Amino acid sequence: MPRRARIALPNVPVHLIQRGNNRQPCFFADEDYRRYLDWLAEYADKTHCRVHAYVLMTNHVHLLLSSERADAGGALMKLLGQRYVQYVNRLYRRSGTLWEGRFRSCLVQEEDYMLACQRYIELNPVRAGMVAHPAEYRWSSYRANAQGEADSLWRPHPLYAALGDSAPTRQAAYRELFRHELDPGMVDQIRRATNGNYALGNQRFASQVSEALGRRATPGRSGRPRQSIELESGELF
User: Fold this and answer.
1) What is the per-residue pLDDT across 85-95, written as a single tens digit (0 to 9) for each?
2) Helix (H, G, I), strand (E, B), or coil: what is residue 67?
3) Which Gene3D superfamilies has this protein been placed in (predicted)?
4) Helix (H, G, I), strand (E, B), or coil: what is residue 21?
């Protein structure tokens, strides 16, 4: 069955997940994380992507980014994935695939969902039991967003900028968001949307995305579809 075409729109934030093949590790030493982040910054610049949040876990990566080009996220992940696989295979004398097929993604509604998605991303090490607080984890954007730590990769989203009229007030407001756990329902919603390549937001946002793309941006009803819809890419779903 043909793969469902990825949904993407200019200047709409997108949450991406890239997993290691069979959930195996894709980072093996501190230098691996540093190389990945260096290349992520390089290719984000080349593809005109703005990275608002990220976390590098042992066997997967989360990114939250936006761009004026709808295809920029895919271009970034292709360049970055190829470069990093070549590095890992050469350094560790291995061959074959490192990543688990295509990366997964969802479009993110800015109001009510954008900052929740950032929290979801930066809280990954806490949910995994690796640290007690996101500030303790080195390989994420939390320290840039919450503590003002220099990060050449990080580009704040306008919603983050609206948290305060100065860097200290924005950082304090951002830290306040982490005083409470992310609602389990929101966690499930983020996971379903990202794994399914759907719009993450309310019904109005989903309808706007569907109208802009000319196709469904939410899960379909169970059962046999009444007809196939031909996409611009030539794929059917």
Assistant:
1) 999 999 999 98
2) strand
3) Transposase IS200-like
4) helix
Q: Which helix (H) or strand (E) holds 51?
A: strand 49-56
| 46-60, 105-119, 213-227, range with the lowest pLDDT | 213-227
Query: Closest by alpha carbon to 60, among 91, 41, 84, 86?
Result: 84
DSSP state of 225: -
- Predicted confidence at residue 237, as pLDDT, reads 22
By the 8 A CB rule, do 184 and 127 touch?
no
Whether this model's pTM surpasses 0.85: yes
What pLDDT, on a 0 to 100 scale, did the predictor assign at position 226?
36
The CATH number assigned to the domain holding 77 equals 3.30.70.1290
CA distance 137 to 131: 7
Asked if residue 2 belongs to a domain, the reply is: no
Quote the tokens at residue 17.
């997940």
Judged by DSSP in three states, 32 sits in: helix
Task: Domain of residue 101: give its range.
Answer: 14-203
Residue 195: inside a domain, yes or no?
Answer: yes
Domain-located, residue 42: yes
For 4-20, give one letter per residue: b (16+ CB within 10 A) or e: bbbbbbeebbbbbbbbb
